Amino acid sequence: MEMDKLKRNKEQFKRLFRLFMTGILVLSQTLIFAYIWLNHYNDNIVLPFVQRGNWFIYALYALLLLTFLHSFDGIKYGRYRKSNIIISQCLSILFTVFFSYLIIVLLSAGFVTAVPLLILTIASIAISFIFTITADFIFGKVFTAKKTLIIYDEYSPDIFIEKLGHRKDKFVLKRVIHISEGLDKLEESIRNAEGVILYDIHAEMRNK
Asked: Of the four, 32, 34, 166, 199, which is 20 to 30 A from 206 by CA?
């Protein structure tokens, strides 16, 4: 019971950490957009917005970004590889900027220059890159993954190992060993591991 409680608390803390990092990311990206909006677009629309209108535009941008981040799994820190997170966030930024430009065109009743938004895109991607590297580093330090051993028999665990790589917040694969190594060798390897996965082991040997 105590172990289950600790696991639940750890998972809850991970979710809170991801939520906090996502909030910081969306806030920083929205602040950049707010600067671009006020200095390059608000005065060019048909009826320039005042305070409440501007806040609505900021909220809309943040909502779009958050929606695409969620859709592309761009906020799964510690669960996916850094490269996957960065690519997902870049796609989210591109889609968000594209739809934001369409909204600006509608508000302006005509086409406007996209150069400020291109600058916004470059700055946002740079921030996303730095942010993801930092978040992944912090996640790895705070939530240490278990050193894991895989013992297998007849079938190769390569496909399973690839899937395991998507949960690096829980597992870091240290060794893969075949059942033919013998019980003595297996026992020695198990003692040096924090987690053991039995992959496709026949019942008799698995019970041993």
From this structure: 166
